[in-house]
Amino acid sequence: MIEETVVEMVLDDDKITGYIDDRFYPEKLPQDAVLPAIVYTKISAPEFHDIDVAYPRFQFSCFSKDLLECKNMAIAVKELFQRYKGICEGCHILQGVYLDEVKLPDDSGIHQIAVDIRVVYKKITD
Prior knowledge:
Blueprint: H1 2-11, H2 14-20, E1 24-26, E2 37-44, E3 53-54, E4 57-64, H3 67-81, E5 86-88, E6 91-104, E7 111-123
Parallel strand pairs: 1-2
Antiparallel strand pairs: 2-4, 3-7, 4-7, 5-6, 6-7
């Protein structure tokens, strides 16, 4: 459920979709993908055992042939999630937390910046 919420949040963000349109992929960049694009991966999914709160970690890998564009995409991802609070798609997001960012080396001429975000949320139950 949280993964679908995160996807919807990204694809509803005009700043991010201004760069990637709908080129937002799970797990890996498709071969011959049009750039710029973002790949998302759910890195971990810890939960508290005694309360209904989870805090998964997501990595958003921004890909572009232009370094400045890649940096701006990473900033847009950070701005979307950092300190975000709200209710989306059956999840009460208590806090979005920016964890880290790293520019990964690549000799292919494609720039990649990975942004790690933790989403602390509570599942909404009826």
